[in-house]
Every structure is written in structure tokens, then in C-alpha cells.
Give the backbone structure.
Amino acid sequence: MSEIILSMQHISKEFSGNQVLKNVSMDIRAGEIHALIGENGAGKSTLMNILFGMPVIHTTGGFTGRVEVGGQEVHILTPHEAMAHGIGMVHQEFMLIPGFTITENIKLNREITIPTVVSKVFGKSLEKLDIRQMNKDARKALDTMDIGIEEYTMVAGLPVGHMQFVEIAREIDKTGVRLLVFDEPTAVLTEGETQNLLAAIRRLAAQGIGIVFISHRLDEIIQVSDRVTILRDGELVVTKDTKDTSAVEIAQLMVGRALTIERSGGAERHISDEIFLDIKNLRVKMPGEEVKGMDLQVKKGEIVGIGGLAGQGKLGIPNGIMGIYPAAGQVSFDGKPLELNNPRAAIRSGLAFVSEDRKGTGLLLDSSIDLNIVFTAMQNEDAFLYKLGLVKFRNQKQIRAHAEKMIHDLDIRCTSSSQLVGSLSGGNQQKICVAKALTQHPKLLLVSEPTRGIDIGAKKLILDLLLNLSEEHGMTIVMTSSELAELRSICDRIVIVCEGKVAGELLPTASDAEFGLMMSGSRLSQHQLEGQTGAMPDDRAAREMTAAFQAAAAGILTPPDGSMGGVN
Amino acid sequence: MGAFIKRMGVPTFIVAAFLIIVLVSAFVLGLSVPVLISDALRRVGMNGLLVLAMVPAIKSGTGPNFALPIGIVGGLFALVCCMELNIVGFQLLLYSSLLTIVICVLMGWVYGKLLNAVKGAEMTIATYTGFSIVALFAILWLTVPFTNKKMGWMLGSGLRETIQMDAFHADEIISKIGMFNIGGAREVVDDVTTITGGVTIPTGILLLFLLGCLLVSLFFKTKTGIAIYAGGVNPRFAQASGLDTNRYRIIANIISTVLAGLGIIVYSQGWGYAQLYSAPLNMAFPAVAGVLIGGATASRATCVHVVIGVCLFQGLLTSAMPVSNVLFPGTDLPEIMRMIIQNGVILYALTQVKGGGR
């Protein structure tokens, strides 16, 4: 057993009363590739922030637990100290200067210099660069990864994959680097580049550097890692040897949590066969949530869930349909084609949107509850106005009456309808967003992240409200959420989005593993899996991956018995 | 106390405190406080509409209308056009106001288009647009083929720098409507009544200002007004609600420009002179400062801010001069102080702007 270079023990951390890490321990051995996996919000980033002594940790009250590097307890208070302990990070976004050569980027702020006459007089900052030695070092670092690019090439214009290597070379070049953290390094890479990177990571590990590999992609983890640590809701689920586990098991462990909201109802729903909303080849340019050609059909009376990991494009769907971000494709609603890129047209056709960006897009925080509730209806349907000739004044009496009805119906906790929305709690603000949408008398409700940032009790109320709308008023609802549990608690079916496309569709009763696999979007095709089984640590995992991938691609639903019978 | 100042606004508090100090020292120095107040009221009426022009612009999210000179030169152009036709008295003000509306709607529309093209840098662009339009109109004043002797130079062509309103029987005619005096000494000599001292209330011009405030307030209770407000405080919200925010920004700036045009006509009649050439250059900053002193910010303003601000700022300007003339004879202190307060409050407001003013 090789030496343990990093050990984090019993790490707990809370942000203003919200426990994000609970007694998490992990250790990294020299020369191992240790995968760290978990859903968004599972605590991976917080754990790494603690390791690097990021200011965000210390300004929020620090953490409890013990960090040891090379067997000695350390207190890392700044990223600089982490560096001094030999801990390096390969960033997801490239921090390179485009106008510099590769060597210059690698050696930035650590240049090798030769004293000159001038520098002897005016100080060290005027010493001459030892370009030759710097190039030699850069070459060595690049060779470690077996990369053939010339060290004197300009970074601008390099393919993305190569920039990633420059970034890694910079970390390797730092003397005494013992541990490297890769934060989703393959997120922006193509298939070929990914394989090169994984090979390079293995070469680094072979030289005795410990690697922490953070990724959502189960296939990569199975392929490259020695051990895997799974986090869920801030808790350590398990640390396992990769050869003893499988993609399916990891997926299950990653997602599987006790449903906080029990599934209820569903029986009274009246779903007609009529296709109400028909989306074909929708493409949406929403930064960070791009949709790249997506098809979806929604029937009247249904509650359809859209799930998937953050950044995969699920939020782009409602935002694109509502015209908030530029979109292209064919969308027809209620039998008529819907004009894209025109919020007014979308609203007038009978769509209403409860935005995930509650404080930005959803509400006028400095305005009263009543104005917020009626605003969209007033502007688009000329409601709540009285007319004096050509001038349309707000009808405050009618507005207040309606707002008070909504406050009562949705149980919004406030002092009066003229209270400012910004002073309400998250849950009540969300109810106002829903009230605003309902005031438009929509035929279809698009709800995006309805429970983001609100507490458990309010979550339940919001979900009950949506369920009630569907069951008693026959409202068709398309709900987008990062929280699988809530999608599973009220939706009729759940569409999983991965890399801007539909990865597949599952029933709410499908097993955790199925959701996990589909969300992680296996990228290896069957062909590649067959070609690379040699590289896979476990043949069984490869077979499972293949089967799961096929199932997902064909949209086959497996029996919801929780076992992996359908996949195996 | 701290919370009270914060609610009131730091500039409002400082200027109000200063105004009180000045008025008290005026009393102590034996100056006639009623005369100071009369003078302040007159100036409040004169400047009111110009300051009110800030409200639609700020509410629409384009920031204080630093391009006020656009509306001002529009109004002046309408005024000189009517003067050329030798229209006099009330009719001069009436017809030039109507013409102003036409001209300023057009100019405001073009200006609004410009602002939509430079989102995020509205205040800077507005300032320079205001400067440029003054220069452009300076050429116009010099080259218009107007022939009315009452406004031409003695020699050569072009318009005079200051045109006397009394030549057109239009000086102080709005101000004098319903004007009355409280506590002045009345003296009747040969059927002509002269009043000395006391507080003179220029009822007409004040009522006109308050009417303007009322109309602007009412406008922001209409569907369009609410849409402008929403687009100003949260453009993303407005867009998601199906509004064309650009359109509402243009409407708001048209209203602001028209108010500026009407404002300069009211100002000119109250002052007794229509000032052309570089005079409009220096009218935007006092108006911006006026609304800010009233407690407005670069992204939030109401008519109440306008009323408070214009009273405090003009009150201070008119009362500081006689006081400092007694205390520091022979200095230009009031003018220096005006610059410090005016530019200081604008600077303060700009430091409070978050995220590019939007």
C-alpha cells in the first residue's frame, strides 16, 4: 500500500445554518486516481474549497475537521499555502493568457531569470529571462504528458484540448507537486481529446502524483479511476475501489436518497391524447444551459418533468419557449405554431412561465405584492385597467381585490397586499410568481426550479399547489427541476436532458440507478466500448454501460422494481 | 438619527441643514428673509419643469437626463420661430409650447433610439449628446434667415445671445397670474400700487409646476407608465412579461425631452430673457442635481423628490448669495458653493449607482 499524501478527516461545514458537509472523510494515496462524484450541491466544490483554503470558507466561519498532508496536520488558509504544500488545481475554465507562448504561460510568475548589470543596480525585477531554461522546463512538463505541441507556440488559436494540457503542464512544472485536482476536466473536450487527457492523467499517476478527479461522467470514472468517493447531500456515501463497483452502482448511490416528498395523487388526472405542446428540434442559446436540438411532446393535462444535471440545458427549454433567450426550431402549441423569440406572443398564446431566476426575471422586488401579481396580465390582456378616453389607468381597487384573493388562495404570508415583495421569504416569493402566472389564465404552465432556495416546508406547499392545479383545474404543467425527488413526487413522466438533448424518458417510479445513469449521459458508444474494453478496469462495468446506454438511447423503460434486471 | 438621515438621503439632509443655517444667518445679519423666500419661490417655479423632466428618464432606466439641452434647444427653437412671426404675449407662449411639443417629440424619439443603441453607457453618452446638440444649434442660431429686428444682432445676420422677452410682452406673464403678497407694505401713489417687502407668491408659475407634477404622477399610474417603470427597475422582468422595453425607453425620453422644451419656455418668461448659444449647456447639471438633492437616485425618482429637491436647491442658491455678500464681501463664494453642491451631489449619486446604472 502506497503512502497516503492527503487525508481529510471528519470535515463538516455549514453556511449560515445550512449544513453542506457532514463529517466527510477521504484520503488520497500517492499515485492513485481518486474519483469524487456527486450531484450538484452534494458538496464536492465545498470540499475542494476547504482543501485550497478559499476565502469563501474562512469568511463564512471556517470548517471543522482535520486536514493532513503527508501525515502532518496543516491549516491551509489561502490557495497560495495549498500550492506550497504541493497541491495543484487544474481549472475548468482556462486561466491562460492568449497572447503568450506556451512556455510563458507555464512559467508565468515563476520565471527563471539571469542577473544583468541593470538588475544589479535596480533590483531583481529587471533581471533577464532565461528563455532557454524555461523552454526546457516547459518541454519536460509537456513530455510528461506525451504531448507533441511546440513549447514556443502561441496559446491563442490552440484547440481547447491543448489548452487543457497547457494548464496541466503548468501545475506539473511547479516543483514538488504531490496532488492534482481535476475539476470536470473533460466537460469541454471532444471524444478524442478526452481520451488523450485520461491517458495523460494515468501517466501522471504512474509518476506518483495523487489525482483527485471530479466528474459527472460515470464512464470516465470507471475507465480511469482506482477508487471512487461518492457524496450525496453533503454526506459521504461510500469510498470504494473502482474495480469492486460498477457504473450502475455508482449511479444508484449518487442519486438514491430517501424521498423527502412522498408521491401522492396522480389518479385523478385527466390526460387527453391530444398533443398540446409539440417541440421539434428546439435550439436555445442560453449561456451555460444551451439546448442543442430537442424534441418533446406534452399532452393536455399532463405534468411533465424535465430533469438533468446543471449546465446540461434543461433550463434552456422553458426560457427558449418563452422567448427569453434566443431560440430556433419548431414549436406548436394548442394546434398553432408558436412564434419564438417573442415573449409577448408566447404569453398571448396562453403560456405562463414561473422563472428559475425568481429575483431577476420573476419579480419586481421593490414593488408591491399586488402590482407583481397583476403586472403581466395587465400589460398583455389589458386587465385591471379602467379607461378614460385613450388613457388606461391602473384600477387599484380591482388589483387589490384580486391580489387579496390570491393571497388567500395560495396562503401567501404577508402583512398586506401592498407589502414589498423583496421583504418576503423565498417560499412566499415563489407563490407570488405562481400567482402572477395564474392571473394570466394560462393554458399551460412552465415552471422552472420551483423550489430552488426555499425551505423544506415551503417546498411541499409549492409542489402541492402545482399538483392541485393539475388535478382540480386540469392545468398542463411542464416542470423543470434539478431535484429529482420533487420531479418524481408529482410528475407523470420525466424527461432527462443531457448535453442539450433528450437523453431519455423515465417514469417517476424508475430506479435510482436508471436516473443516475441517464443523467450522467454515457458518452461512449457501444463501438468505442468494445474497442476499449482493455482499458476498462472491469469487464462487467463495460457490459453494463453498454446495456444501459442502449436502453437509454432506445428510450426503453425498465421495470420499476429497483433492481437492475432490466439493464442486465 | 442615522436611520433617519439614511431614509431622507444624505444629500437631502446636508443641503436642508445648510439651507436652514443660511436662512438663520440671513435673519441674524438683518437681511430680509421674506424677500429671499419670494426670490426662491420664483426660481422654484422657473426651474420646476426642467427638474421634472428627470423623472421619466430615471424611471425608464436610462438614468438622469443629462441630455436635457436637446429639449431645451428644441423649446428655444420653437420660441424663436414664433417670435419671428411676431406673435406676442400669451399667444407667444401658447403657440411656441405647441410647436415645442412637435419638435421635442421628434428629437426625443431620435434621442431615445440613440440611447437604446448604447445601453449601459447612457449617462456618458447623454452628457456628450447634450453638449453636441448645443454646438449644433449654435450654428443654427447664427445662420437662420430670421429677420425680426427684436432678436437679431445690430449688424449682420443671426440671432442675438439673449432675447428680451419684454419686447414680446411675454416676461413674467405666467408668474404674474394670481400673484399675491403677504405682509408687504402697500403704498398707493397716483393710482399705482407699489408693494415693498413681504413674501410674494408667484401663483401661476407654481400652479403650472404642480400641475406638471400631477400629470407626470398620473402618467405613471397608467398602463404605459407602469410598463416604463418596470422596464426601468428590472428590464429582464419586463421582457419576460412580454414588453418591448426599448419602446418604453423611447417613450420616456420623449416625455422627458418635451418637458425640457416646455420647461425652458417657462424659464425664459420667468427670467425675462431667452438665452441662446452656450446658455443651454449649463442647464442640465443643475436640473440633475435638483432631483438628486430631493432624494432621488440614478435609478429611482418620483415627483415628490422633484418638489423637495427644487425647493431646497433653488432656496439655497437664492439665499446664499446675499448672505455671503455680507459675510465675505467681494468674493464669488455663492457661485463656488453652487458648483460644489451641484457637482458634488451628482458625483455622490453616481457613486451609488450599482451595476452600470441598471
In short: Chain B has a mean pLDDT of 87. Residues 290 and 313 of chain B are 6 Å apart (CA to CA).
